[in-house]
Design a protein that fits this description.
It contains 23 helices and 6 strands. It has helices spanning 3-11, 15-22, 27-36, 39-48, 51-60, 63-73, 78-86, 89-96, 101-109, 113-123, 130-133, 147-157, 182-187, 194-197, 211-221, 241-259, 272-278, 281-308, 310-315, 323-347, 355-384, 388-418, 427-451; strands at residues 140-142, 166-170, 176-181, 205-206, 225-229, 235-240. A 3-stranded mixed beta sheet has the order 1-2-3. The N and C termini lie far apart (66 Å).
């Protein structure tokens, strides 16, 4: 992929050459080119791609990038409508959620009636429910069908389904009755009736189930897809592994932003990356400054602690050298612990009802890390300053600070989560403030005990 070469060829209107090149690129290269080129050249590039390559590239763009491209093509444009028509239903709804309502209406008016109905069905469910992102392209067959006829139908219409690894068995009223793996279907005798060979024990969710809850369930069970039923237990869709992964990734991203203190309650549902990159400077400042002020206050308090131990610093001047190391080490461990907590909570690896067990393990990790790092700093500081007592003060302080930081890293976001304060909102600034002050108090206490 040579970005400059593409720009040169497009500027010289050598479209046949560009068409040949772009369709021989890897999907990753096509995606990068579309993201890097100017708006005008991006449109040219899309129009020169084959139908299959254009659709694949479009589906791999982020929703806001899809929105931009649709805006450039125009809501009446044939290429835009073709892309939308061939998208997976759940991906189409995800994109429409990013577009103004007036644009969505115009786009829907120009799509086939069956696509309109499919899209209206998904958009009718509340935000964050599984009904909103499920796909309606699944393989389902009536329970009185035979394995042979079912296999023939799958071979004939496999392109109509998002996945055929699992076949869903339904009644004539479309109620979910059982599931069957593709392997089980293939090895069955052609005359076997599906109701006789299907698995009646199955796990499913309803359309009102929270997206994150359903995604965690699918991830935990290791299924390729999860059936979704309505209130009458009629099969209406499935949650695929790809969509579950997207939900979990979005949740992890949100938790990481929250843990960093980057939060704005009024726009929690917006794409945070766009908001923090593309908004005005004033808007970004409003999001980032509040929790940074907590850090500023913490820094001032930490300065006050150093001032209160001024005599100790003057008496043991070399002690000041190690202040940044002790504060930074505690801060880094706390950040690691907070990130692990946020990710574990998002993926369902941390069970809040068993938080004490998770906290105990993190403290054990802190004790282990503190022992190793503390011993190393004890040796380095003692030899460097030729003062074993100073080395002991530094090593002991590192040990205590690391253990306390590991405790804070799990405890603070847990407390905020329990009090429903936007999950882990502002955890890092709060932890940094507490950790800096505590680390300094621990260090100067060691100095007073061992050296004064």
């Amino acid at each position: 992929m040579d970005l400059m070469e593409y720009e040169r060829l497009l500027a010289e209107n050598k479209f046949e050459k560009v068409k040949e090149m772009i369709n021989n690129e890897t999907e990753e290269s096509r995606l990068q080119l579309v993201k890097s080129l100017s708006d005008e050249n991006r449109i040219y590039l899309f129009r020169l791609m084959s139908k299959e390559n254009a659709l694949e590239t479009f589906e791999n763009l982020e929703p806001y990038e899809q929105r931009e491209l649709i805006g450039l093509l125009g809501s009446q444009n044939e290429e835009a409508l073709q892309l939308l028509n061939e998208m997976e239903p759940d991906d189409r709804v995800r994109l429409f959620d990013e577009l103004p309502a007036s644009v969505v209406i115009r786009l829907l008016e120009n799509l086939p009636s069956d696509v309109q109905q499919e899209t209206h069905l998904l958009m009718g469910f509340p935000d964050h429910t599984i009904g909103r992102i499920m796909t309606t392209k699944f393989a389902s067959f009536y329970q009185d069908e035979t394995a042979g006829r079912t296999l023939d139908a799958l071979q004939l219409h496999s392109d109509d389904y998002e996945t055929i690894n699992t076949i869903y068995i339904i009644s004539r009223q479309r109620k979910l009755k059982g599931v069957l793996s593709l392997k089980e279907l293939v090895i069955a005798r052609p005359e076997d009736v599906l109701s006789k060979i299907m698995n009646r024990e199955m796990i499913y969710v309803d359309t009102q189930t929270d997206q994150e809850e359903a995604a965690k369930l699918l991830h935990e069970k290791g299924f390729s897809a999860l059936p979704v039923v309505d209130f009458e237990k009629r099969l209406v869709g499935i949650l695929t592994r790809d969509d579950a992964y997207t939900v979990l990734q979005e949740e992890i991203t949100e938790d990481v932003f929250l843990a960093a203190g980057i939060v704005d309650d009024r726009s929690m549902e917006n794409d945070k990356s766009i908001r923090l990159i593309r908004n005005s400077v004033v808007s970004i400042m409003k999001v980032r400054i509040p929790f940074l002020l907590i850090t500023l206050l913490g820094g001032m308090l930490a300065g006050g602690v150093i001032g209160s131990f001024e005599n100790a610093v003057q008496t043991v001047a070399s002690a000041a050298v190690f202040i940044p190391i002790i504060m930074a080490m505690g801060g880094n461990v706390a950040t690691q612990s907070t990130t692990i907590f946020a990710r574990g909570l998002a993926l369902g690896h941390i069970n809040i009802s068993r938080f004490a067990r998770h906290l105990k393990k993190e403290i054990m990790v802190g004790l282990s890390i503190g022992s190793i790092i503390g011993f190393i700093t004890f040796l380095v500081a003692g030899i460097w300053k030729w003062n074993p007592l100073l080395g002991a003060a530094v090593g002991g302080s590192i040990f205590c600070s690391v253990v306390f930081a590991a405790l804070l890293g799990f405890l603070v976001p847990y407390i905020l989560y329990k009090f429903k304060l936007d999950g882990a909102a502002g955890a890092n600034p709060i932890i940094t403030t507490i950790n800096d002050i505590t680390s300094l108090i621990i260090y100067f206490t060691f100095i007073r005990i061992l050296l004064l």
